[in-house]
Specification:
4 copies of one chain form a homotetramer. The first copy, chain A, contains 6 helices and 18 strands. In chain A, the strands form 3 sheets. In chain A, strands 7-6-18-15-9-10 form a 6-stranded antiparallel beta sheet, with no helix packed on it. Chain A has a 6-stranded antiparallel beta sheet with strand order 14-13-11-8-16-17, with no helix packed on it. A 5-stranded parallel beta sheet of chain A has the order 3-2-1-4-5, sandwiched between helices. Chain A has about 280 residues and is an alpha+beta fold. Helix content of chain A is about 20%, strand content about 40%. Chain A has 2 domains: about 130 residues, Rossmann fold (3-Layer(aba) Sandwich), CATH 3.40.50; about 130 residues, Probable inorganic polyphosphate/atp-NAD kinase, domain 2 (Tumour Suppressor Smad4). Chains B and C meet through strand 10, helix 5 and helix 6 of B and strand 10, helix 5 and helix 6 of C. Strand 14 of chain C pairs parallel with strand 12 of chain D, so a sheet runs across the interface.
Chain lengths: ~280, ~280, ~280, ~280
């Protein structure tokens, strides 16, 4: 089995830990292919390749959710991650357990947690897929825009709002949760549409089938912004039409514990701990 | 094609309209089988049978949502309904359009809208299916109970609350909507679990897959009540376990307009009109 | 200074601690007047009196929120409480700090936190005041009732719902919080009205002035229940009118730390800890 | 009585109606002082002055909420408004009733509805007052910021969110309503703090007393934006401190119907009508 290796490039601790991971894998006779973006910053004796062109069976990521989300833009291989971020909701092991994690990985003692991605189109042009969510937002703070949402060609609702989120089940516990989305079990194969600050009393989150196409029209002559996974931004011109649907492509996570609910409860506990540390 | 006919028994206008329906069907040579519960109260010359034993291809219901929900406890045949209720969210035509409705029915000009029902078990004993929702509620007003919810054997969440609702997509626009559930497109084949007045800041609605089993444990030594579709009540003893899952059996509605969203928007408009008439 | 003493009567630990409190106060030459409801269950050599007829300057309560709320029905004296309950949001010190608490009390090292109570009337007849909230609820689970709410004679809103809560600022962090009420700083001198499970998309919590009178009419021919502080119940007949306003009488709490926000954040932290212990 | 007159400058219908108003007032012998910003665009024979320097007893505004909010930045005189906007929540009469409105104004047949404004400070420097609300928002869409909120020096809560709103009771039915604020009766003399898209499960709206000072710290090294009444923008540097409190200055509205609830219900009805027209 060939492993790729990447890390958060601007975080010395992440790079140092990546070097340790590379060393351990080297000792075991399977030196990883190292992401060229960090290859110069760590000691290693493996091959070097850009993330998008790595020949590998699985990718090891040392970093937080942002690092994982960026990596998932470049690979469809299963990802195993060691958390170096503040929350690390997508990651699998905390830094102090990195060694056991790598051992389980080498021993094949894991499962693959496959998650639907979201396909996104602007005026007929395909954009990168999102793992968590696509956000459409007014570019002018506190100036609402008018959104018209259709599902499979049928008008679902329209509202004036700051924006809206189209999220995967994975994303239901991220940004979408902040604006009142339900938690969606990944096995439900459904997408969620949630308005952001709707000036409409009848606005509610909407859950649609995995094979439904969601179309969003921006009805006024103003710009808006599309943000995918908090990482990729696209300016949207007036009168644009956006299209979203659950993708055939998946994000694959290497897990030692697949149960969605255990993970979710752990996430909430972590979030509450952070809240408590911050004095509520 | 053989039609059954029932109506809201305690509403003279509903019975009068049912008699008109029976007369029109008689004229067309297809006198309906009349529900024995109303047979004495209307003029007709068809057969009489109890709802649960009717030989028919489709059932015509004159009444509101309650009448339909009760009828659906007794038949798995497609239901066509003429609204005589206040809101009539499940009904298909308003009373003034009953004649066109019957004509379309006779002409075969309709579609069948098939909806998942909810299967309910108390301590291993099967209960009637619900079309909208199952409500579990403390019997003592303003005394919370402790609920433990598992999905497919995995602990999902637990909370102190007045109760919880497990709803079908059909039910997502009914009682569940009152306590913050998302709207669920029926094609999403998902069930929703929503706490009622949870004394827990982390409580959120949960959407689960159609083949998931939801198990609810009541952890304290107090009674609770199970209410199915607002119609059927069961006392639940202390330490009972409830089980819910989407059923193989469906409720089937005869529709002239299948689009879920058009129906939903019409429902909201009707609800808002009622609100406005009542002075908001 | 003369102290009264009461405790949760059905909890041996609370009674044992009350006896220790009585002994300490006896040692200091100020034996407490003991609530006759617990006098037989604890060793002490002070006077005995019913709660409602105690000659005292302050009342010491050993128990949880329920014990305090019951005691506040009988006295307008300042209350100092040692928590023996699960959450104890109204209490001041945990059991392990009872001795320091009593010492500060004897030393006069405390402040009085004065809180508005809620005055309640049914059809012109005054009911006991509530410290937290008054709940009006349908007696039939999952059968909504129609509520009409007026503020100072002006129609505010009406809705179909399971019930409604009228809460004081103190109650804003209790049951009202479960159904979406805002947190209200006690210095804001305002009351909150919140619907419980409103079947109305435009329903929102409402904050009214401290000198406003809230009138609730129950418009259908069905019974309802009024519950004050989760303790006192009154059956409400059809077509009754309820009246609520912030009372001139106050509940007074002896505090070592008056800051509302510190208390609130501590409460939330405690609630989250309980949630976490229960596996989220 | 001397009247000032202004109108939405970029809307021909508003200017035309303003000219009619000027003509009627001229006929009655009380030609208005006309805002110099529109003086060139309408026929009239009164004096001309900038809004901020008008000698007048009351200001007549022809336009929508934006026009009124802008005018209220320049005058503390009572404002009477004829609605030419889409919603016109702050306005008093629809365009077709402008003549009766002016007659009642001339006849003194009105009341003054006095509303608290919000005082705003950035790092000790006073900003214009807001009638509705102050919004603090991250400048980077879908990148949360960390907010720390203190009330009268006591830490109230902190959270990661897109932003927060501090609103007056008048603003409680505007933008704040979109993010879950309660409706606040203006007589309650309270301010509301509501997070926008908080990534925190324990986040709730907070109601504080009219003499409380709310302090908001932005804890990370990123910019933010302050927007007052959707009109006035200020860039906020990293580590800035914002201060908000209800102002001594008030906005004064000329009303023919002072009842807050009638106005609110009318507003909701108008909002629902607009929603319905837009197909929900």
């Amino acid at each position: 089995m060939v492993f790729g290796l990447t890390a958060r490039p601007d975080m010395p601790e992440a790079l140092a830990l990546a070097a340790e991971v590379a060393a351990l894998l080297g000792e075991r006779g399977v030196p990883p292919v190292v992401d060229e973006a960090i290859a110069g910053a760590i000691d290693h004796n493996g091959d070097i390749a850009p993330l998008g062109a790595m020949e590998m069976d699985a990718l090891i990521v040392v970093g937080g959710d942002g690092t994982i989300l960026r990596a998932l833009q470049h690979t469809s291989r299963p990802v195993f991650s060691i958390n170096m971020g503040a929350l690390g909701f997508l990651t699998e092991v905390p830094p102090e357990e990195w060694r056991q994690g790598i051992e389980r990985l080498l021993g094949g003692d894991y499962v693959i947690d496959q998650r639907a991605k979201l396909e996104t189109w602007i005026d007929g042009e395909r954009q990168p897929d999102a793992v968590n969510e696509a956000v459409v937002h007014t570019t002018q703070i506190s100036k609402m825009r008018y959104f018209d949402v259709r599902v499979d060609g049928n008008r679902a609702f329209s509202f004036r709002a700051d924006g809206l989120i189209v999220a995967t089940p994975t994303g239901s516990t991220c940004y979408a949760m902040s604006v009142g989305a339900p938690i969606v079990d990944p096995r439900a194969h459904a997408a969620i549409i949630v308005p952001i600050a709707p000036f409409k009393l009848a606005a509610r989150p909407l859950v649609v089938a995995d094979d439904s196409t969601v179309e969003v029209k921006l009805l006024e002559d103003k710009d808006a912004l599309l943000v995918l996974d908090g990482q990729i931004k696209r300016q949207i011109g007036a009168d644009s039409t956006l299209r979203f649907l659950l993708s055939d492509r998946t994000a694959r996570f290497i897990r030692f514990d697949t149960d969605f609910y255990t993970r979710f409860r752990r996430k909430i506990a972590r979030l509450m701990t952070v809240e408590e540390e911050n004095g509520t």
